[in-house]
Each structure stands twice: as structure tokens, then as C-alpha cells.
From TrEMBL:
Chain sites annotated for binding ATP: 282
Homology family: Belongs to the class-I aminoacyl-tRNA synthetase family. Glutamate--tRNA ligase type 1 subfamily.
Species this chain originates from: Brachybacterium avium
GO CC annotations on file: cytosol
Protein name: Glutamate--tRNA ligase
Gene3D superfamilies in the record: 1.10.10.350, Glutamate-tRNA synthetase, class I, anticodon-binding domain 1 (1.10.8.70), Glutamyl-trna Synthetase, Domain 2 (1.10.1160.10), Glutamyl-tRNA Synthetase, Domain 3 (3.90.800.10), HUPs (3.40.50.620)
Residue ranges constituting the Aminoacyl-tRNA synthetase class I anticodon-binding domain according to the UniProt record: 361-511
Amino acid sequence: MPAPTIPTTPGVPRVTTVPASSPAPTAEVRVRFCPSPTGTPHVGMVRTALFNWAHARHHGGKLIFRIEDTDAARDSEESYHQLLEAMRWLGIDWDEGVEVGGPDGPYRQSQRGDIYQDVIERLKASGHIYESFSTAEEIVERHRAAGRDPQLGYDGYDRDLTEAQKAAFRAEGREPTWRLRMPQEDLTFTDMVRGEITFRAGSTPDFVVVRANGKPLYTLVNPIDDALMRITHVLRGEDILSSTPRQIALYRALIEIGVAERVPEFGHLPYVMGEGNKKLSKRDPQANLFHYRDQGFTPEGMVNYLALLGWGFSADEDIFSREQLVERFDASDVNPNPARVDLKKATAINADHIRLLPEAELAARLLPYLQAAGVLGEQITEQQRALVTAATPLVQTRMNLLGEAPDLMGFLFIADEDLVVQDDALKKLGDDPVAVLDRAITEIEAVPADTFAAAALEDALRTAIIEEMGIKPRLAFGPLRSAISGRRVSPPLFESMELLGRASSLARLRSLRDRLAAAA
């Protein structure tokens, strides 16, 4: 490959004719998710992973999952494993990358140093990058001396240093960085989300790609990885949009030295905003993906909601499955305007997905939340498991989050004498709750143990309390509900009594009757 033509005027970029975006139309779609392992998984970051996954699956392509772990001071193995946990929890699988391998590994930047060094040497030899000895202070002073804005950035001073000038700088003890020669032309590309975008010539100065200590910067290694892994489409956050001209220029250089085949297509996803219409911060609880999981969001509900942060399934439909997401997802349909986290909407979507789960599947998912709340112990008995399974249909339509299971079902696992009736469950019990409880006890005592079932209980108690005592339906069963569950709101009353059994139901009714009678 012949060396590129280099202009002789400092600060004037060279001309290149490689198109800004040139994916082969028939190429297999290859996208990547490449987070840094710092902190806990962020909602915006995971949304990016989801959109890349959906794009790959929609086009029958591949998702490459690699880790950008070159910041030793901030990266951690704990964060790395949390990333894996987040992807697996949401069901975002990948075809090549960490943990699964592939032809272009290793898939952690910290293990690819030799690969980067080889490309750096080729870029040096071709003249695409050059030594720069200028300090930040010198750049500012040159701008001021010329009457320019000192914030303009690098001025191209070192582009055409002679060997004698370089030797003089080295004699002063200076170690050079290496900068990429930016092209002398407007850089225009068609963003998959935002349409045509142009960066004017000269708006992006030559930038450092290799530190003075020889270590490459992210701005270099990221395109190298994309090139060697044959990435065709890059869906990423809007916050990186301004770096696109640098990366396009780097792809062009990599094409010219035979490292890259193409410049990928770019799509920049909208910001995710939190409360107060502020950009969602990593420190915001709403940003932590595991915060949602711990509350009881299902993977299905979370995937559904994350997809709606910038994309829409249809004008009149918000609930969809992973399969439907894959079928319909198109990056061109992503809204470029900021997306706002709406917890009320997210919770409602999750509730719909809970309703869609098979009862046995939902019962299994409730167990960890019941254990975490201390309702169930570490070792779950078959009797407890059966009771959860039986109670699940009673709470499925009443739940918004899996984490609500302990409040809704906990009374079924408490000894009768340990049940605490909440204060608000003692309010609005009607004019004579003691009489209602007395009548209920009498009716239940007459029901044989072998026919103690919800239908028989409901029939007997409705007849006795509503028809014969003349109590309004709205007030008739409040005292019974409070006695049985300890709460004003509970699963269906008669079905709950059936699950508790005759003895426990009577014990709880008598306990509240005695308490109210004593307080009268």
C-alpha cells in the first residue's frame, strides 16, 4: 500500500476519497455491545445492548459482546460479572464474545495489546498518524498569539516537523503522542436514527490515538476491534455522536492499510432521561437495572419497557414479546428525541407480563422473593411449594411486581397466633364487626372439614351475612378479610380460607372477634 499524500501546510488535513459509510449490501449483519466493566449495569447501557440484539436477530445476523477493560483504575471483575448477569437475566444472548469465544478473540481489550500494537506500527509506517510534541499549554498560547479562541483545540503544529525538529524536542526530554491526520473535507454520513449528518471540514482537529507512553487510546482501539470483528452496524448512545468523525476517519485509515473492509453504518440512540427531565445518572436509583429486578420486574416486562425507551411497537399497542420485538424492530423507527423513564408505565407493562405467565412459571418465580422477605426459609418444603402454587392464581391478577408476593401471600405461611392485623385493616369494619364474625364462625363450624371449599363457604356466608343479617355486600366481608389475612386488601377471601383450612380459618376469626369484643 503506497503512503498517503500528506499536505505541507500545518493544520491542513489530507484529502481522502473513501466514502464515509460503505457497508457491503450483502454483508452479514454484525453488531457489537462493548461496555466498560465499571459500576452496576445502567438502564441506558442495557437498552443499547437490547437494540443491538434486536437489530441482529431481526436481520439474521450476529451480536458480538466484547469488554472494554483498559481502565485499570475503574474496571472491576465484579462489574464484569454483573454485566454477564444482566444480559442473561434479560435473555440477551450473543453469538461471539466473552464466555462463548469466537474467531476474532480475545474479546477483552486488556488482552489485545499485541493486536493494537501491530496496527499502530502499520499506521505509523503509512503516515496516517504522526508524532506530536506540543503540550496543552503551547497549543493554547499559539492560538492566543494568533488571535484565535484558545479553546479551539489542537492546531496541527506538529504535522510536518522535520527530523531535526523532532530530535530537538527529544533532546529536551519530550516524549511524543501520536495523532491521526483528519481529512480535509466535510464528513457526511447517514445515521440510521437521525438521517444525514455532516461534520464540517476542520471542525474536528487531529486527535491523539497513542499516548506518550505508547498505550493506545479508546478512540483507536474501538475502531480497530470493530474492523477486525467485521462490524457492519454500530448502534450506540447519542453521547458518542460527536466522536463519529474521528471514527470515520480512523476507519478510512484502517481501510487504506488493509485492516478494515468498510466503514460501518452508525445509529445514535436517544438519551434516557430521569425525573425532572434530567439525563439519567449512574447514581440515580432508576438507572440501576438490578433495582428493577430486585423490586420484582420480570425479564419479559423489562425487555418490553426498555424497548419503548426510544422505539415503538405500534401506535396502539405497548405489550409485546421478545419474538415480536425481533420481528418488528427497525433502527430507522427509533425516535431521536430523548426518552424518559416512566416508572408508572414500566410497572403497568410488567403487570401485563405477569398476567401472561403460565401459573406454574409464575409460582416458581415468586419463590426467591418469598425467601428474600423471610416468608420462606432457605429450604422450601414440598408443602410450602404446593401452597405457593395453589395461591398463585389468586394473586396473579393483583400483582404489578413479583416483589409484592410477600405482602399478598405471606399470611398463608404465618402461624395463626403470629398473624398481625394491620392498623388500617381494623378501620371501616362496619357497625358491628363482632356480630359479623360471630355469625361467620357459626356458619363455618357447620361446614364439614371434607367439604371446606371456597364455593361452599361463599354460598353459606353470603346467605348468612348479606341476606339474613342485611349487611351491604361492600361491608359484609371486611371483618373476615382482616381476620384471615391481617390486611384490608388480600387475595380472594373464600379461596384464601380454603387454602388455610377450616381450623386456621376458625382460629383467626375467633382471634379478631375476641380482640374487638374486648375493646368494645
